[in-house]
Design the sequence.
């Protein structure tokens, strides 16, 4: 009899504990939506409200993704704002920015660390990729909040539209047909040719080094130790920095034509001593942001479509 | 070597060594080896100790009484001569080679600053003692 009562009591207690350990977060959705507002008011309290704001949450059965937006759409301003916040946190708090944001989310949402995820981006126009795209999550290996993502320098789109094709005096219908016919194998061949064009274009410059990665999509072409591509040249060649440009080109076949997205990451290093490691190159963005934007615009609007046209013409 | 000649040579040796180091730093900055904040950090390490030494030397040459009272004929012992002149050259050589080691590598910059600091302590302080002894 006594043993039976003991078993009943144990069963009664375990019932509560199993309920407490429920991992399904959907059941508490309303609570999380409410806590998002509290998170925003905390951001305002600590003085981050001007720079950061919450932009909705996504609830999965074992994870909650909180979207944070930097309050600017300009890539340059976003870069500066992001750098400033990170630095301010480093100066004033024992925790880093990502740790503070994540730990605060864990405590406000009342969730366990592995369940929390913060997606930090800047505001963008529709269809444009954000220049700042970070994910902050808990790494069980190090027991710390980890921030992983990208600071994209400059992004430009270029789409081959009929208007452009007309300008080049090529039979519009014929070209549109070929564009429609672009299958994966043809796209691969096109990218291969594009890689060759990159090598051809830069091989005249001062001893550049190439790394062309042909993967399924995108095509990545890395050119190192070129001078005078983005940064304006001076009188002495030795004073010009060695540049490292990474072109990421994505080619998609769509109904309108070929959709080409090109992203250019520019870095620069010492002009006197050729940088020995990749780390020795610094980002061009704050210092040469204007030059990089101009170069990127010229490249994607003029040079890249020209190359594609040449490749298509050669094929026919 | 007489004290009067040694004073002049020490002044020129130290001035030229420092001039080479500072101009090399600026040249590295011009060729984008260092960015502006790194340039400031390096100059902050390199300049202050030298300027205190320079003050002592300039004060000496401005003070007529000191020049008149100075014992110009005294012979400077050779270890002091070597520390003064060769030390300046070694300092210049060391600093220029350290500055040329890893330009632009942000992660290695803290180590580089440490090495520059060592150079300043090793050469700057010893030279400072020599300057203090000779220019009194």
Sequence:
């Amino acid at each position: 009899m006594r043993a039976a009562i003991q078993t009943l009591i144990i069963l009664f207690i375990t019932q509560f504990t199993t309920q407490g350990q429920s991992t399904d977060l959907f059941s508490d959705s309303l609570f999380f939506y409410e806590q998002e507002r509290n998170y925003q008011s905390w951001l305002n309290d600590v003085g981050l409200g001007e720079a950061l704001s919450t932009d909705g949450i996504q609830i999965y059965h074992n994870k909650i993704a909180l979207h944070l937006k930097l309050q600017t759409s300009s890539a340059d301003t976003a870069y500066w704002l992001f750098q400033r916040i990170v630095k301010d946190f480093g100066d004033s708090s024992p925790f880093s920015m990502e740790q503070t944001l994540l730990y605060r989310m864990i405590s406000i949402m009342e969730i366990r660390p592995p369940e929390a995820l913060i997606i930090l981006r800047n505001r963008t126009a529709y269809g444009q990729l954000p220049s700042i795209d970070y994910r902050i999550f808990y790494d069980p290996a190090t027991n710390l909040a980890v921030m992983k993502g990208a600071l994209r320098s400059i992004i430009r789109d270029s789409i081959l539209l009929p208007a452009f094709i007309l300008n080049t005096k090529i039979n519009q219908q014929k070209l549109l047909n070929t564009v429609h016919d672009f299958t994966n194998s043809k796209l691969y061949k096109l990218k291969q040719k594009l890689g060759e064009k990159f090598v051809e274009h830069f091989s005249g410059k001062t001893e550049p080094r190439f790394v062309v990665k042909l993967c399924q999509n995108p095509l990545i072409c890395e050119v190192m130790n070129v001078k005078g591509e983005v940064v304006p040249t001076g009188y002495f060649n030795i004073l010009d920095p060695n540049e490292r440009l990474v072109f990421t080109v994505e080619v998609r076949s769509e109904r309108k034509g070929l959709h080409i997205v090109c992203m250019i990451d520019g870095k620069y290093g010492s002009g006197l001593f050729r940088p020995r490691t990749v780390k020795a190159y610094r980002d061009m963005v704050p210092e040469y942001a204007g030059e990089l934007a101009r170069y990127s615009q010229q490249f994607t609007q003029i040079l890249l479509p020209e190359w594609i046209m040449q490749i298509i013409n050669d094929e026919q | 070597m007489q004290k009067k000649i040694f004073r002049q040579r020490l002044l020129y040796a130290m001035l030229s060594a420092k001039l080479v180091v500072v101009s090399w730093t600026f040249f590295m900055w011009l060729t984008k080896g260092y960015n502006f904040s790194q340039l400031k950090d390096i100059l902050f390490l390199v300049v202050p100790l030298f300027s205190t030494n320079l003050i002592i030397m300039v004060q000496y040459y401005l003070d007529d009484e000191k020049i008149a009272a100075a014992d110009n004929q005294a012979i400077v012992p050779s270890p002091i001569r070597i520390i003064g002149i060769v030390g300046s050259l070694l300092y210049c050589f060391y600093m220029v080679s350290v500055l040329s080691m890893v330009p632009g590598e942000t992660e290695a910059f803290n180590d580089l600053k440490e090495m520059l600091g060592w150079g300043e302590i090793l050469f700057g302080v010893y030279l400072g003692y020599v300057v203090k002894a000779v220019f009194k």
